[in-house]
TrEMBL record:
Entries under InterPro entries matching the protein: DUF3275
UniProt name for this protein: DUF3275 family protein
Composition skew (Low complexity), residue ranges: 130-148
Top-level taxon of the source organism: Bacteria
Region (Disordered): 86-151
Amino acid sequence: MIRIDGAQLRVKRIRQSRNGAFCVADLSTAYGEFKVKDPLLDQFEEGEYQATVWISEIYLSQYIAFGKGVTEIRARLHDLQVESQAELSTAHEQAEPDPIDEQRPVRVAPPKKPVPPPSTAKDFSHFNKGGKPQSGSSGSGPQESTQGGHDGLLDAEMLRAIANRDPIKLDATVERALLRRQTAELGQRHGYRFDAKQQIWFAQ
């Protein structure tokens, strides 16, 4: 973990994504320049932020977009503490690929133990146990319905907070697409505004 004081984040909002608007940032520090594309940025307004940042990883990223190959050094933020905010100076909006659409590295599974070839007796034994897969498949039905009952955009606690116009802090570790939808829901439908210093949503 690296802590850097006096860092500058230039946050830019990209609006042309099919998954909804998202944010990227140029991070300027005494140790160098980095690109930041973490989900937590999607809550921020476009602007220049002076902050203390905690970096958990620095890595090289490569991708192909808009007919060209791009190589950049990225920093993954563990946390940040905003000290001041200013409007972003007018600049040409650069096309950026959506991080959701970037191909994720494939993890190689550990080698499996060799399985002996099935014999005729084993085949018949497996055939006679046909009820077990059926019970497993029927058991998956209630599980799917239970999960479906909890796939709402805002949970009960958030809905109560909205009804009372209480502050709300979103979990930035959830799936990025869900965080974007929650952000849009609070800001556009329920009249909340994000406070970058506290990283909390307040009713206006």
